[in-house]
């Protein structure tokens, strides 16, 4: 135990004192916050852009229906000749010219109204204009047929389905977004952690091998001890880095947004929905968050996070031991990257679509994908026994994989020169 | 004399490859024991087994009478053939870390390290990183790491390969010094001169088998061929040679001499003594040089391996 502690401390210090590590720790939050601020700034900039659209209506009946708003200003050019209108638009560099041909057949107009522009207009602009024209034409058509458009709009019923669980609590429809956010964030965080710090474990194994210090170390400690110390020391360094990222990044974001007065939260989809929703919706959402099995989520998050990290980093350590330099690691990366990617994709497509479907369920049992997939499923409510089975499979696999990795590690760290094949790795298990 | 390290029938296989085949060795206390053998003979495998880096498939090893166990690592100092240090770690910190892994307390390790730094006059290296040191300097640190915990058994795998001549000398002197202070030294090499120079005992391993072992002086006695190197001045060389060849096996040889003499290697049959040869020679000429030919370790090595081929 004393040696394990020594190894953990050394590995931790070696990681933390590394220059690249220090730079990454403090520069990453700056870059991230910079990106967020930049995106917020750019989207503000974009929406400020006012488009001027000229309307040329040969019937002189539609212009009054087009009221300018903050995005688009409409000018009435119907007084000019069509050619003059087009020239003016081009000269003044307006966004475009909307042209209604002479006709009182609204169906004809619906098909033959034209928009002239030098630059192809954006998709959202086109659909905006289309729906505007469509509603104008519909109202006119209704009036023509002697129907009161107000009666129609009054007759329309907007449905807002109230979702309740069987114990009678009302839930917000937004709660799925919240669950998705919780699960997705947890799964994604785990994947990032595994890739970043698993790689670090691997590099540190390779470093010991190329420095040729490994034989001196393992004449003092057991290879398994060294491997576990390495994994733990690196993970503590990782946690340190994550905490600094969150704290430093949070402070930075707060300071910058308050200095520049940028509303970063404006563009998030949940908020947009919230604006539309009523007070009642917000209340329900809060109830939902409180009602999320938070204790369960946190508990499972810790277990799957630690389990998943141990599972993968032992594989990383074995890969590091099997090769002499980092370029040789590529061929062994597949067993790590494929299940991780699979976990994330299954999580983002299958779980969100149907959290308790067959695919999601199976992948939340398979040990290589279960940490990611199960973490995403849990906010949607997973039975205890399901979690238990999945965890037992995971823990069993961890022990098996650490055993295999330790075997490869033990043999690999003393092998120099040639790049081993999978077949040779298998043979090492029997040494 | 009591033995510090005893190996009994130690075998190790890597898949189908037999790295060691029933090796038995006894290493007496306070001796310098050389394991000889060509590359790939199994020397490093044996050393790794003693260091508990690899486990033997069969056989037992005893250190100081006890079966080898994990706690014994603190009594063993190991300088592997493939050696190095953490490049980006500071010298002092690194040596302390490695010494603590060997069971020393941080305080004790610091004290001893200061002593060694003074002894080798490298006090100002404490806060330097290994990558700032020259190779020779790093080798000195490496040596300190090996001996700092004052092990009973010191194991050097090819200690002279990779060391520059100055450091090689330093190591040779320290090896003798440590032996005199009570340590037992096991070293493996394929360089015969170093065995000649240093070892009290030796074992010869070839293709995973031990071919011979024992005290170096006794092995030499065993391998001597009753051959004498002679420098003699005679009047009629051809007549003399003819007479000589009737009684003994004769081969020409060469050594440095200030005389114009006939230089010969003369082998005598067991039923003659060297006095018989001497009296024969005396009756024919003036003897300038008469010495027994003692086989070098190199000769023994080659001869043994050839006889087993």
| Shape field of chain B | elongated
Rg of chain B: 25 Å
CATH superfamily of the largest domain in chain B: P-loop containing nucleotide triphosphate hydrolases
- Largest interchain contact: A-B, 24 and 25 residues
Task: Please indicate the count of domains of chain A.
Answer: 2
- Number of distinct beta strands of chain B: 14
List the secondary-structure elements of chain A in sequence, H or E.
HHEEHEHEHHEEHHHHHHHHHHH
Mean pLDDT across every amino acid position of chain A:
82
Shape estimate of chain A:
elongated
What labels describe this entry?
heterodimer; A: 431 residues; mainly alpha; D-Maltodextrin-Binding Protein, domain 2; 2 domains; four-stranded mixed sheet; two-stranded antiparallel ribbon; 17 helices; 6 strands; 68% helix; B: 309 residues; alpha/beta; Rossmann fold; Alpha-Beta Plaits; six-stranded mixed sheet; four-stranded antiparallel sheet; 35% helix; 29% strand
């Amino acid at each position: 135990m004393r040696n394990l502690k020594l190894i953990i401390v050394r590995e931790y210090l070696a990681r933390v004192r590394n220059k690249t590590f220090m730079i990454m720790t403090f520069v990453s939050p700056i870059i991230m916050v910079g990106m967020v601020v930049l995106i917020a700034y750019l989207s503000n900039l974009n929406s400020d852009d006012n488009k001027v659209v000229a309307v040329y209506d040969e019937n002189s009946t539609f212009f009054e229906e087009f009221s300018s708003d903050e995005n688009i200003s409409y000018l009435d050019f119907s007084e000019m000749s069509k050619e003059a209108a087009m020239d003016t638009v081009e000269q003044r560099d307006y966004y475009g010219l909307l042209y209604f041909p002479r006709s009182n057949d609204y169906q004809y107009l619906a098909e033959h109204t034209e928009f002239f522009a030098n630059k192809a207009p954006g998709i959202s602009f086109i659909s905006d204009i289309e729906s505007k024209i469509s509603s104008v034409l519909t109202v006119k058509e209704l009036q023509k047929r002697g129907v009161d458009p107000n009666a129609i709009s009054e007759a329309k019923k907007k449905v807002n389905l109230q979702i309740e669980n069987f114990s009678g609590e009302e839930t917000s429809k937004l709660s799925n977004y919240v669950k998705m956010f919780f699960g997705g964030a947890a799964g994604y965080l785990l994947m990032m952690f595994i890739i970043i710090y698993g790689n670090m474990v691997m590099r540190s194994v390779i470093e010991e091998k190329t420095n040729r210090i490994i034989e001196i170390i393992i004449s003092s400690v057991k290879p398994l001890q060294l491997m576990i110390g390495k994994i733990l020391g690196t993970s503590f360094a990782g946690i340190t880095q994550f905490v600094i990222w969150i704290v430093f990044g949070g402070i930075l974001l707060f300071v910058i947004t308050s200095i520049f007065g940028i509303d970063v939260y404006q563009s998030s989809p949940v908020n947009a929905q919230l604006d539309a929703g009523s007070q009642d919706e917000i209340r329900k959402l809060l109830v939902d968050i409180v009602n999320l099995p938070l204790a369960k989520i946190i508990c499972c998050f810790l277990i799957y996070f630690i389990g998943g990290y141990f599972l993968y980093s032992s594989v990383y350590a074995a890969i590091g031991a099997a090769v002499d330099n980092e370029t040789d690691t590529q061929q062994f990366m597949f067993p790590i990257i494929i299940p991780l990617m699979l976990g994330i994709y299954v999580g983002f497509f299958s779980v969100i679509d149907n959290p308790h479907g067959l695919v999601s369920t199976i992948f939340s049992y398979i040990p290589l994908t279960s940490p990611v997939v199960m973490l995403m499923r849990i906010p949607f409510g997973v039975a205890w026994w399901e979690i238990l089975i999945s965890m037992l499979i995971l823990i069993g696999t961890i022990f098996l994989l650490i055993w295999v990795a330790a075997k490869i590690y033990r043999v690999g760290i003393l092998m120099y020169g040639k790049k081993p094949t999978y077949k040779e790795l298998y043979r090492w298990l029997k040494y | 004399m009591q033995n510090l390290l005893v190996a009994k029938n130690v075998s190790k296989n890597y898949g189908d490859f037999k790295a060691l085949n029933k090796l038995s060795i006894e290493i007496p206390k306070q001796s310098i024991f050389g394991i000889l053998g060509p590359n790939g003979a199994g020397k490093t495998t044996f050393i790794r087994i003693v260091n508990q880096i690899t486990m033997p498939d069969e056989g037992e090893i005893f250190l100081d009478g006890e079966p080898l166990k994990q706690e014994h690592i603190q009594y063993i100092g190991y300088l592997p053939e493939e050696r190095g240090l953490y490049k980006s770690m500071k010298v002092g910190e690194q040596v302390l870390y490695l010494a603590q892994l060997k069971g020393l307390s941080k305080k004790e390790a610091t004290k001893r390290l200061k002593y060694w730094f003074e002894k080798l006059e490298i006090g100002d290296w404490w806060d330097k990183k290994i990558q700032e040191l020259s190779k020779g300097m790093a080798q000195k640190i490496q040596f300190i790491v090996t001996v700092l915990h004052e092990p009973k058994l010191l194991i050097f795998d090819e200690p002279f390969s990779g060391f520059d001549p100055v450091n090689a000398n330093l190591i040779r002197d320290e090896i003798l010094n440590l032996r005199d202070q009570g340590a037992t030294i096991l070293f493996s090499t394929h360089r015969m001169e170093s065995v000649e120079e240093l070892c009290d005992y030796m074992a010869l391993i070839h293709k995973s088998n031990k071919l011979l072992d024992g005290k170096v002086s006794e092995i030499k006695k065993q391998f001597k061929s009753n051959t004498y190197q002679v420098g003699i001045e005679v009047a009629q060389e051809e007549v003399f040679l003819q007479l000589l060849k009737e009684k003994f096996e004769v081969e020409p040889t060469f050594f440095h001499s200030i005389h114009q003499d006939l230089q010969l290697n003369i082998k005598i049959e067991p039923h003659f003594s060297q006095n018989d040869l001497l009296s024969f020679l005396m009756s024919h000429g003036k003897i300038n040089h008469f010495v027994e030919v003692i086989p070098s370790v190199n000769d023994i090595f080659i001869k043994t391996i050839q006889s087993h081929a």
